[in-house]
Design a protein that fits this description.
Blueprint: H1 3-24, H2 26-31, E1 36-42, H3 61-69, E2 71-77, H4 83-92, H5 96-99, E3 108-109, H6 110-113, H7 117-123, E4 127-133, E5 138-139, E6 160-164, H8 188-206, E7 210-215, H9 260-263, H10 274-301, E8 308-314, H11 333-336, E9 340-343, E10 354-361, H12 365-372, H13 387-391, E11 401-405, E12 414-418, E13 422-427, E14 437-442, H14 460-480, H15 487-493, H16 500-504, H17 509-519
Parallel strand pairs: 1-7, 1-8, 2-10, 3-5, 4-6, 4-7
Antiparallel strand pairs: 2-9, 8-9, 11-12, 12-13, 13-14
Length: about 525
């Protein structure tokens, strides 16, 4: 039996079972309270940082238990692997080219923000709270994408605001709206666990369903882990992945090596610094894990654990030296694939430790939350509710999904598509000694992306199939992108069928200048003193 037939059969069985259960308990369901919903978002946490998924060196007991109690999504991607765009996508269910929100492109305009899940749930009677790093600006009109001040934060959109603008600080006392927790919890990761607990208590007292959104600063750099966990990894000698360092980068196209992820941010994970950097990185994730434990403990104490859905993910991954890269942004697994867990305590009948291979992404978080709240999911967003996969982890929500980057050095602009087993990438840039490049990886057999199959004749049919999926996504970009901030031009640049000469006509000259300056080490040009 072919794989797709097996999936169709399993879905049909699950659907029939679900209908039967629904009919038999319809009256009871009507009497149930609306579920509480908690969305937890870490910052820069790669997919391979949980013990649950096979990393024997890490200690993540609370996240492992959450995954074991719920469903873990093994093929979950951030469609743009950088915080500002990724966070906007999670809130709105839109690809970046439709939200128009990313560094150097613009903020999230209020018309789009007003359709985000926090706004919709609050209007539906949920008590809402945001705590932690918000990560993007919300403004009435397109403009500067900066989010460094409170004036850019949508504080009035929540019943309780415990967030901060910009990157914030790991020192609790330096974050305005949570500084009252500083004496007991001087590190902000544990402070956010305490903030969450207090919001849960107050919501129970108010007798209202609640939606809590917590965005941890950890493990974002510069690494500053909570010192109370210094002993957790004190003796750990971290193993390097098979694609670590220069050997893992030999087959990458020049475009991937032209940005700061390769030229600057990989330095912290060079062999001589690897152990120290990994200890701090993983220790910060341990802090997040501890905070998750605090939150689940408080849910139990308040008697609402059995009616509270928990979703855990990250805004993007982190390369940690894989392919000789630091940071995120680029479309490779360590940077773009992240943990994703959904736990619904009401799913008493499902098998424990369920895992889904369905292709999912941050655009699916918003519709999933709306679905759990019993609200209509808009049909004009890009994301899909993942709730059906909870009953049928063998199912799927799409055949492929787009991943993209149109930020940073112009040669690093790319788009790709991922399916359950394959990833196709297209690098459009064809100047400055580069030629447009393609990559094709069999993720099932080559999870570390070490063998580009584009030139392998055995995979010519698969290449054509993935290119067709790519072309479909580019057409959607061209039809639906916001008509500002270079997104229409990017839709032309990333089109495989447009000649380079035509692409050159739409490439903003300032992007080429910035790239040339970066080669000369002039990312920050010296200010010219005015003559007196």
């Amino acid at each position: 039996m072919k794989n797709y037939n097996r999936r169709e059969f399993l879905r049909s069985v699950a659907a029939a079972t679900a209908v039967g259960c629904m009919n038999s308990s319809l009256l009871a369901n009507k009497q149930e309270k609306r579920p509480n919903i908690i969305f937890l978002f870490s910052d820069d946490q790669s997919y391979n940082t949980l013990g649950y998924t096979g990393n024997k060196q890490v200690k993540t007991p609370n996240l492992d238990k959450l995954a074991g109690d719920g469903v873990y999504f093994d093929r979950h991607y951030d469609t743009t692997a950088i915080c500002m765009a990724a966070r906007a996508s999670a809130m709105t269910g839109l690809y970046e080219y439709r939200s128009g929100c990313n560094f150097t492109h613009g903020p999230l305009v209020r018309d789009i923000w007003n359709r985000s899940y926090p706004i919709v749930l609050r209007k539906a009677g949920y008590r809402t709270c945001f705590a932690g790093k918000f990560g993007f600006a919300v403004t009435d009109e397109p403009g500067n994408s900066g989010y460094g001040g409170n004036e850019a934060m949508p504080m009035d959109s929540f019943d309780v605001w415990k967030g901060w603008p910009g990157q914030g600080s790991y020192k609790t006392a330096e974050n305005e709206f949570i500084k009252e927790y500083a004496e007991k919890y001087p590190h902000c990761t544990r402070a956010l666990g305490a903030v969450s607990g207090d919001f849960i208590k107050d919501s129970v007292k108010a007798n209202k369903p609640f939606c809590l959104s917590v965005s941890f600063k950890a493990p974002h750099g510069p690494h500053n882990p909570d010192p109370i966990f210094d002993e957790v990894y004190a003796d750990t000698v971290w193993e390097k992945p098979p694609n670590f360092g220069e050997e893992g980068a030999k087959h990458l196209p020049k475009q991937a090596k032209s940005g700061r992820q390769y030229m600057k941010l990989n330095r912290g994970y060079k062999p001589e610094k690897y152990q120290e950097s990994m200890r701090k990185y993983q220790q910060q994730i341990y802090g997040v894990d501890y905070a998750v434990g605090m939150i689940r403990k408080e849910l139990e104490a308040q008697g609402v654990a059995e009616n509270t859905i928990i979703i855990f993910s990250s805004d993007n991954g982190y390369s940690c030296g894989a392919h000789d890269l630091g940071g995120k942004v680029l479309p490779y697994e360590e940077a773009s694939k992240v943990p994703m867990i959904i736990f619904d305590p009401r799913d008493k009948g499902k098998n424990k430790s369920s895992r889904s291979l369905a292709v999912t992404g941050n655009i699916d978080i918003m519709p999933t939350i709306l679905d759990y709240a019993g609200l209509d999911v808009p049909d004009d967003i890009d994301g899909k509710s993942l709730r059906p996969l909870m009953a049928d982890p063998e199912g799927e929500v799409r055949d492929a999904m787009a991943i993209m980057n149109v930020w940073g050095n112009i040669p690093t602009y790319e788009m790709g598509v991922v399916s359950e087993d394959y990833k196709y990438l297209y690098w459009f840039f064809g100047a400055e000694g580069m030629k447009p490049a393609q990559e094709l990886y069999n993720l099932k057999d080559d999870p570390y992306e070490m063998h580009n199959l584009v030139a392998d004749a055995k995979y010519s049919d698969k290449l054509a199939e993935m290119q067709k999926l790519y072309d479909r996504e580019i057409k959607r970009w061209q039809e639906k992108c916001v008509q500002r901030e270079e997104y229409p031009e990017c839709g032309i640049m990333l089109d495989r069928h447009v000649a380079w000469e035509e692409k050159m006509k739409v490439i903003p000259e300032k992007r080429l200048e910035l790239y040339r300056d970066s080669l000369l080490g002039k990312e920050k040009k010296p200010k010219v003193k005015k003559k007196k």
